[in-house]
Amino acid sequence: MALRAHLLVYGNVQGVNYRWLVQTAAKSLGVRGWVRNLEGGNVEIMCESETEKAYREFLKAIEIKDQIRSVERIEILEFSKNAEPEFKYFAIEY
Q1: Is the CA virtual torsion 48, 27, 94, 7 positive or negative?
Q2: Which of 52, 58, 74, 80 holds its CA 20 to 30 A away from the CA of 87?
Q3: Active-site residue among 19, 32, 36, 56?
Q4: Exposure of 35 by Cβ count < 10 A (0-12 exposed, 13-18 middle, 19+ buried)?
Q5: Where exactly are the structural domains of the chain?
Q6: Cα–Cα distance for residue pair 17/1, rounded to 1 Å
């Protein structure tokens, strides 16, 4: 079983390499799923991990606020602790 979350990220997160940073964080923590831009300037993430610790570290890693990127908030649209694993890796979707 895996922990799975569907997230919506608000802020200055498009056109600033945010998806690449999300993918890098996911890969380093063993998180699988995808990230993509949405119309309107938000970013959508579907992620799953084997542990709650990896999930929490992933959330912390993607709350980026620097001179270029600024995450205002991350909305959790769906969350499950008992999901069947669906993803083999983490990808940027276009």
Answers
A1: positive
A2: 74
A3: 19
A4: buried
A5: 2-92
A6: 31
Q: Which of 12, 32, 36, 37 is catalytic?
A: 37
Instruction: Let me know if 37 is a catalytic residue.
Output: yes
Q: What is the CATH T-level fold of the domain 2-92, as seen in this structure? A: Alpha-Beta Plaits (3.30.70)
**Amino acid letter, residue 4:** R
- Give the pLDDT of residue 42: 98
> Is-contact 91 23, C-beta < 8 A?
yes
Tens-level pLDDT at each residue, the chain (94 residues)? 999 999 999 999 999 999 999 999 999 999 999 999 999 999 999 999 999 999 999 999 999 999 999 999 999 999 999 999 999 999 999 9
pLDDT of res. 32: 98
Give the CA count within 13 Å in the CB-facing half-sphere of 76.
Answer: 11
